[in-house]
Amino acid sequence: MVLHHDIELLPSGNILALLWQRRTYDEAVQAGRNPESLESDLGMLEEKVIELKRVVNPDGTDSWEIVWQWSMWDHFIQTDYPDKDNYVEGDVSDYPHLIDINYNLDTDTSIDVFHVNAVFYLERYDQIVLTSHFNSELWVIDHSTTTAEAATSSGGKYQQGGDLLYRWGNAQAYGYSDERYTFLSGVHDPSFVYNSLSDNKVGTFFMYDNNRDSGENTQVIEMNPPLTSDGQYLIGVDVEGVYGPIKTMLQADLGFQQDRLGTVKRLSSGEIFTCNCAGTGEALWLDKQGKLMASMTLSSNTIGASNAPEVYRIQHYWSTDEAIKQIEK
């Protein structure tokens, strides 16, 4: 097992972290993965979210205890191999709350087939937001479950256990071929902006869409999810069986195309802070409508392994922020 990509600090002081666990070739095949997509010596990476709590030892040192976890492995579906696990009759589209283990058969690697790259905590509803780069989707899961409930399809505040409460960006991943329901092609850095004036009266999701392999420019995307005031996501509002919306509030063309990396935030001013993450490495400020206002070249210490600027995540702080004031002292 290995931690990867991202962490999120919870209000409790605990930490959410992404984790890869390698599954063997035989385990992946038994779970219903197409064996032709696997290499026998590599197997497949399982995606997990773990919650870590700091423990102070008697000798004064710190250690970390896993107090909660969610595993993708418990929420797979497949319709191709009746003699293997996770098999169901019918269509994948009949089970949008589950993850098709065979959706990604042609990824960059045979082992890292989902590539969850970001975790965000939606505090008001005790939900965890993830993005899968190769599924080109945003996922929401319930954090109020116990670990035992998170391995099932029941329990927790929303009574769906660890199944997906919501997914958006690529309905092809759960059986809909109509490209009108596909908005993302590679995605990074989801966040939620509370806004009582939004269509749902709650807020909007923000994300960075690579437009991977599409030939189109990378974008910043904002959309208004079908979210109720008590944290429920409605399916089929726009199209039966599809998680909407089927149109975005904002698709800001960044003027370049990058297949990887990405970060974006809506600032308290309403402006947008992002970057040319795998290109020039510049920080970018956009106005509320997504038009470029200013840019700044970052330090040379952002140079990546390819000897080019590479930025995974950047954060914006106002000069009046108390944290900045403390540094200045």
Q: Can you describe what's shown?
A:
5% of the residues lie in helices and 32% in strands. The chain has 3 helices and 18 strands. β1 and β2 (15-23) form a beta hairpin. It is globular and about 65 Å long. The mean pLDDT is 92.
Main attributes of the structure:
329 residues; mainly beta; 4-stranded antiparallel beta sheet; 3 helices; 18 strands; globular
Based on secondary structure, the structural category is mainly beta
What's the gyration radius in Å?
Answer: 20 Å
Number of DSSP E strands? 18
- Measured as a percent range, the helix fraction is under 10%
Q: What fraction of residues sit in β-strands?
A: 25-35%
Please report the distance between the alpha carbons of the first and last residues. Answer: 41 Å
Q: What's the order of the H and E elements? A: EEHEEEEEEEHEEEEEEEEEH
pLDDT averaged over residues: 92
Strand order of the largest sheet: 1-2-3-4
- Characterize the biggest β-sheet: 4 strands, antiparallel
